[in-house]
TrEMBL record:
It comes from Caulobacter segnis. This is Outer membrane protein assembly factor BamE. Keywords: Membrane, Signal. Residues 38-98 form the Outer membrane protein assembly factor BamE domain. It comes from the Bacteria. The lineage of its organism: Bacteria, Pseudomonadati, Pseudomonadota, Alphaproteobacteria, Caulobacterales. The keyword Signal applies. One of its GO terms (cellular component) is outer membrane. Residues 1-20 form the signal peptide.
Amino acid sequence: MSRPAVFAAAILGLAIATSACTPLTSYSGFQAIEAKPADMKVGEDSKSTLMEKLGSPSAVSTFDNNTWYYISQTTDRVAFYYPRVIKRDVVAIKFNPADEKVASVNTYTLK
C-alpha cells in the first residue's frame, strides 16, 4: 500500500472511531414553536386562547384542574452511557376558577 493510502485509511478509521463519541442530543416534551408558555398574560389569556396558542398541556394537575403544566426536556447521550438531562423546563399556568383567565405563570428549571 502506498503511503497516502495508509494515511487516508488511518484518518478514516480515526473519524469512524471518534464519531461514536459524539453526543446525541434529544428533545422531548412540549416544544414551543410560535408562542412560549411563559409569555402568556395574566388576566388576559384564558383556557381557550391558551389551547389556540400552545395546544393541549403536557399535564393537568391531579388535585386542581385549573393548573396546567407545559414540560420540556433536553438530554445528551454519549456512546453507551446513560442519558444526562441538560435542561428541563416546567411552566405551571394557574387559572382563576371563576372566569378561567390566567391567574399566574410560574417557571421551574433544573439548577
